[in-house]
Amino acid sequence: VVVAVVAFLLVKAADDLRQFVIVTLNGVTLAALYFVVASGFTLIFGLMRVVNMAHGSLYLLGGYFALKMQEAWFLEDTGLNLSLSGATDAEYGLMGWVIPLVLATLIIGFIGVGMQQVFLRWNQGQDLRQALITIALSVIMADQMLAAYGGISKDIAAPSSWPTSILLPGDVRFGFFRGVIVLGAALMIGLLLWLVIKRTRFGKIVRAGVDDRDMVSALGINVNLVFAGAFFIGAMLAGFGGVLGGTMISLAPGQDTAFLLNSLIVVIIGGMGSLGGAAIGAIALGLVDSYADVYLIFGDTDLTNYSILVTFALLVGVLAVRPLGLFGRPA
Amino acid sequence: VTPPSAGRLSWLAFAAVALLAALAPRLFDDFFINVILTKALWLGVAAASLIFLAAYGGMVSLGQLGLLGIAGMTYANLVMADGGSAAAWNPWLAVVAALVVTTVAGLGFGLIAARSEGIYFLMITLAFSVLVFYFFSQVTQLSGFGGVNNLDLPSILGSPEEDPVPRYYVTLVVALVVFVVLRGLSRTAFGLGLQGVRDEPARMRALGFDVLRHRTLAFALAAFVAGVAGVLSVWYNRRISPGSINLEWTINILIIAVIGGLYRLEGAWIGALTYALIDNYSRKWVPEVGNVLGPARFNTIIGLVFLIIVLLSPGGLVGIWEDVRDRFGGRRRRGGGTPTTTTAGPEGGPAPGTVN
Q1: Are the C-beta atoms of residues A166 and A180 closer than 8 Å to each other?
Q2: Which of B60, B124, B141, B262 should we substitute to test contact with A (largest number of A Cβ atoms within 10 Å)?
Q3: Would an 8 Å CB–CB cutoff place A309 in contact with chain B?
Q4: For a tag on chain B, would you pick the N or C end, based on fewer CB atoms within 10 A?
C-alpha cells in the first residue's frame, strides 16, 4: 500500500512539480504545528499517564489570550480607522506579536499546573477518572470561551514588518510566517525538548519516570515537583501552539476539538509518550491531510470530500499493525 | 453475588418503574412526555450502549455516538426526506438497513479497537467518533447542506407533532427491551465470559477463552444498541445534521452515563432523565452572572454537574444512592456486597460482582 501511495504521489509530482512542492510545504508546516501541540500532550501522558482532554482547550485559550493582549496593548492608532474590516489592517510591531506570545504561553503553563494541582494530583493513577475530569473542564472552558470571545473566527496579526511570503527556487511562493516561523519554531522546540530530555537532570528524571514512576520516587526524588514541571511544559506547548495556530490559521470555537483530535491521532500513530513518535505521527498526519485534500481527484471523480477517510485509514492501518502506535511501549 | 431476595426486589422495582412509565401519559402533559420523557428514553438507550461496554466489558467507549450517527444518517438517507440522498424506502426497511450497517461498522471498528485497553481504548474510540463527525460534515451528499430534514416515520408513530404519545410508547417499549436483554445477557455464558475478560484477561486467556473475540463481539453488540438509539433519535428529532453528532454530543452521552453511574445499566436512564431535566429547567432558575452564568450557559452548568459527580462519586447517582442506602438501611446491608461501584479500581474497572 505504501509503495502504491508513493508511486501515485510521484506521478502527481511529475505532473505538476510546483503544485506538489506547495502541497508538501503545506503538509510539513501543518505537521510542525501538530507537533508543537501534540508534544505537550504526549509529554504529560508519557510521564503521568494523564490523558489531558483539555489540551485542545488550553491551545485555544492560549491563542485567545495572545489575541486580547495584542488588541489591548499594541493596537496603534493609525488615525484613519475607516475600513469596515476593523482591526485587520492595523499595524503591529515585532513586540506586538512576541510579547503576547511569551505571556500567553506562560499563563497557559500556570493554568495547566493549577489544573494539575487542584484536580489531578490527588487521584494520580486513576487514569479514567482523570480523563473524565479533564473532559468536564474542557466542556466548561469551551462554553466560557464562547461566552467571552464569541463565535466569530479571529486571527492574531503577525508583525507588519515581516514579509507576507517568500520566493523559493523554482518560482514557488510560500507564506513567510507559515514556512519560516512555524517550521522554525517547531524545529527549535523539537531540538530543545530533545536536549532537555537527553542531557539535563530533569530530563533524566522524566525518562526514568516514564519507565518506572514508583522507583523514581523511592530514590528520594520529589515526583510531585517533577510532575508539576512536566505539566507546566506540556501546557505551555499547548498555549504556544495556540498562538502559532491563531496566527497561521485562526481562532474559533471548535478549534479546541480539532486540535485535541489532531493531538490524539498524532500520539496514537506515533505511540503515546514518545517524542520521536509525536514527530513521525505529526508528519504522517500533516502530509496525509494535505495530499488527500488535493490529490483525491481521479479523472472526473472528485473524492476530496472523502479525504477524512484517508486520515482514518492511516489511523486504522497503524493500529492494525501496532496496537500501541509506532513507538509505543506497554505501560 | 446477589442474594435471591435482592434480585427479586430489583425486579419488583423494575416492574414499578415500568408501570409508572406506562401511566405517564395520564400523569403529565404532552410537553413533558415529549421533551423530557421520550428524550430521556432514547438518550438512555444511547448511554446504555456505553454503560454495557463499561460495566460488563471494562471498556469505556466514546465511539458510541459515532455509531449512533451512522445509524441515524443511514436511516435519514434511505427514507423520504429533505436533503441527503432521499431514497424513499419503506421506513422499516430503512431501520433494518441502518441497524445492519451500524453493527457491521461496529464489528469492523471493534476488531481494531478491542486490541487496546483502558485509556488507549477511550482515545481510539474518541478519534473514531470525531472522524465520523468530520466525514458527515464533509460529505454533503449524505448530510445535506442544512442537515437532512422532515424524515419519513413509520406509521406506528402517528404524527408526533399532534400527539406525541404513540412515539413515547414505542420508545418506552424499545428502551425496556434493551434494558431487559442487556441485563439478561450478563447471566449467559457470553456475558459471564465477558465479565471474566474484564476482570482477569490474562487468566481468561489461560483458560482458553478468546479474549479478543469476546471484546469484539461485545463492541458489535453495543454498536447494535447504539444503532437502535440512533434510529430512536432520528424518530425523535425528525432530522439529523453533522451538528447533532459532533464532539459535544459525544461528550454529552458520556456525561449522561457518568452522571447516572458508569457501572449500572439503570444508571443510563437515570442519567438521561437528569440530563433532560437540567437541559429544560436550568434555564429558568440559573441566575444571570455577567457573561459567566445564565440561561445561555447550559454547557457550563452541565459541565459543572459532571465535574462534581466525577470528583465526588465515580459511581454516579446510582453510586450515591447505594452509598446512602447501605449507610442508613442496615436491613439491606449485604455481607460482602458493599457498594463496589464507589470503590472502583484504579483503572476505572468495577470490582468483581458489581454487576448483578
Answers
A1: yes
A2: B124
A3: yes
A4: N
| B143 interaction partners in chain A (CB closer than 8 Å) | none
List of residues 6+ apart from A17 with CB closer than 8 A: A170
Helix axes A55-73, A255-270, angle to 10 degrees: 130
Nearest-CB residue to A137 (from B116, B135, B307): B307
Query: What is the C-alpha separation between B311 and A132, in angstroms, rounded?
Result: 9
If contacts are CB pairs under 8 Å, which of residues 46-85 in chain B contact chain A? 60
Nearest Cα to Cα of residue A268 among B61, B128, B219: B128
Q: Which residues on neighbouring strands pair with residue A168, listed in sequence order? A: A172
Averaged pLDDT, B176-196 = 90
Q: Please list every residue in chain A whose beta carbon sits closer than 8 Å to the beta carbon of residue B113.
A: 319
Residues of A in contact with B291 (CB under 8 A): 147-148
CB under 8 Å to B189, separation ≥6 — which residues?
none
Q: How many CA atoms lie within 13 A of B308 on its CB side?
A: 8
State how far the Cα of B329 lies from the Cα of B309, in Å rounded to an integer: 23
Q: How far is A81 from chain B (nearest CA, A)?
A: 29
Closest C-alpha among B352, B296, B126, B212 to residue A146: B296
Q: Would you state the pLDDT for residue A239?
A: 95
**B223 touches B16 (CB < 8 A):** no
Rounded CA separation A129/B84 (Å): 39
Task: State the burial class of residue A277 (Cβ atoms within 10 Å of its Cβ: 0-12, 13-18, 19+).
Answer: buried
Residue B213 backbone phi and psi in degrees, to 5: -70, -40
Q: What is the pLDDT of residue B337?
A: 38
Rounded alpha-carbon distances, angstroms, from residue A40 to A36, A212, A272: 7, 20, 11
Mean pLDDT of chain A: 85
Q: How many residues does chain B have?
A: 356
Three-class SS state of A302: strand
CB A155 within 8 A of CB A244: no
The answer to whether the CB of A235 falls within 8 A of the CB of A108 is yes
* Helix-helix angle B91-113:B118-138, to 10 degrees: 140
Each as own residue / partner, the long-range contacts of residues B337-343 (CB below 8 Å, 24 or more positions apart, any chain) are: B337/B1, B337/B2, B339/B315, B340/B263, B341/B261, B341/B263, B341/B264, B341/B314, B341/B315, B341/B316, B342/B313, B342/B314, B342/B315
Max Cα–Cα distance, chain A, nearest Å: 67
DSSP-assigned beta bridge partners for residue A173: A167
The C-alpha atoms of residue A235 and residue B276 are separated, in whole angstroms, by 34
CB contact under 8 A, B303 and A315: no
What are the tens digits of pLDDT across the range B63-94? 999 999 999 999 988 887 777 776 778 889 88
**Residue A292 at interface with chain B, using a CB cutoff of 8 Å:** no
* Cα–Cα distance measured from residue B122 to residue B144, given in angstroms and rounded to the nearest whole number: 30
User: Can you tell me the distance from the alpha carbon of A308 to that of A323, in angstroms, rounded to the nearest whole number?
Assistant: 21
B202 shares contact with chain A (CB less than 8 Å): no
Short-list A262, A275, A285, CA closest to A234? A275
State residue A236's pLDDT score: 95
Q: What is the pLDDT of residue B348?
A: 40
